[in-house]
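Hi W., the tetrahydrodeoxyuridine complex you wanted:
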Amino acid sequence: MNKTELLQEAIQIRERAYVPYSNFPVGAALLTKSGKLYTGVNIENAAYPVTCCAERVAIFKAISQGETDFSEMAVAADTKRVASPCGACRQVMSEFFAQDMKIHLTNLNGDSKTVTMEELLPFSFTQHDLFEK
Ligand code: THU
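Structure:
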């Protein structure tokens, strides 16, 4: 699957978002190194903070299926600039993605931007900080 196809998966899956409160659907598509695709959408809740973002839904689906090796991710939202993952999602991404992994961000106007994990969350807190003294 190439970058354009992955972006398209993220755009398409947005339709499944459960967003009665924000009406702001987000779609994510996560590709494993073995070529499997895990999609995610944001799932909101009447208790607002319980909401889970699209990126984390995709990552948690993949991890719960035993996946650990990821090659690329795409995120799509109807924004003026390209989609920008929230801080919590960046932290979760940094737990599972290599520093040089590519994340493709897009909107519905056809704009796209590719960033690395390192660019998305520089100087991140990791397990090395916990265990290495
Ligand atoms: N949201 C995501 O799903 N991903 C992001 O990268 C940014 C925010 C969701 C959370 C909430 O359902 C809605 O967008 C508005 O914040």
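The two ends are 41 Å apart (CA to CA).

W.
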